[in-house]
Prior knowledge:
Elements: H1 6-27, H2 44-51, E1 60-61, H3 67-72, H4 77-84, H5 118-132, E2 138-143, H6 150-161, E3 166-172, E4 175-176, E5 179-180, H7 189-194, E6 199-203, H8 209-224, E7 230-235, H9 257-263, H10 267-270, H11 272-295
Parallel strand pairs: 1-2, 2-3, 3-7, 6-7
Antiparallel strand pairs: 4-5
Amino acid sequence: MTFANPHEQLFYEALRIRRAEERIIEIYPTDRIQSPVHLSIGQEAIAVGVCHPLRIEDPLFGSYRSHAFFLAKGGSMRSMFAELYGKATGGSGGKAGSMHLTAPEVGFMGSSAVVASTIPNAVGAALAAQRRETGQVVVTVFGDGATEEGVYHESLNFAALHQLPVLFLCENNGLAVHSKLSDRQAYGICEHAATYGITTQRCREGWDFVRVNDLVGQAVEAIRRGDGPRFIECRTYRYQEHVGIGCDHDVGYRPRGPLEAWQANDPLLNEPALVEAFDPAIRDEIDDAVQFAESSPWPGPEQLLADVA
């Protein structure tokens, strides 16, 4: 696939993620997907904007909502669907499911269902990279709710103290399940992170993958120069419910107005010519991945305790 400019490439990657998750929505009611799913529809621009400036060897640690980052970092579409199906050909042999995807061969170091738990893993990886002088930049991605956990604050403090090569990337969708930010936090996320002496930036246009790409690219360059950790807060919006495939704007905890405002800026909804150009190849890839997952073998009983410490 050739692209005329960076916008087209990032658009393609974001559309690929959205179409993959839309296929998950189609399949999920059949119960062939063997785990709960946390979808990133509406948030794809952050994943592609973050991963594009990174090298394969730059580790990225995600959260339980990481389909987008798995694919944007270079994870295999076949491997992801096979893992969701619980098949032996999945990246973790069918044991990990949606919330624990991993693809270390492309630097996607894993995700976790435990809020904030991969942040200290990333800081540890950054410490190792610094001491081994590998030149790697480590990225940890988390939601706004993770900033309320103690280990998040410990990690920022340690990274700042030792000037580690790590980028903290907060996807702020304003919600922790159904709880609004204003009901949970007495602090501003960026402002608080800055008290550790970390350079912070806020991106309010989280729908704009070019803007995210530019900000992250500048931060990654600074970190690679040895300028210490960086922190970026990206405002975003999830279209689906917290966990599952439904829409929940009629439940009462969030109105439809912000959804419609976000969609008015969503490139994937407002550039039909690019969608038409890229859709056939993307749908073919997803069809192939689904067929691969459905035809793959189940793990046998001999795999029950394999890789279990």
